[in-house]
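Researcher: Please translate sequence to structure tokens.
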Amino acid sequence: LCEASVICGADLFTACTYVSDHSSQIFRYFVTQMQGQLQGLLFSPSSPFLHQPSSLAASIPTFFDLDLMVRCLVAQFRLNHRNCHTFTVCLNSDSPPVFKLAFLQALYAVLNDALAVPWWPSPEVTYLY
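Model: Translation complete:
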């Protein structure tokens, strides 16, 4: 059930980035209210979220986990690039390597997105990170 809620939360985050700020403030409010919980589940350095198809790979992140993390980071940046606390968590020296890889892939996705909509932040603001 926790995995399903994380997947749905990531999908809601992504969908919210395609809705302009002015057309659906309620939708954005709802997403920002659950943002902290989703970040806590996905990006907790002490217990990272890992979707496990079997118990044999209990500590190895799957491609699915990494894709989910990347989608959340990209959506978080697009929703509010000034408040990306998760980026600093990913760049922390104590963070797992999968967090750093997710950060790099999210940064690549932000910088190379050809289908940007007008209300997304400019890729130049990523130079702060």
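Researcher: Any highlights?
Model: The radius of gyration is 15 Å.
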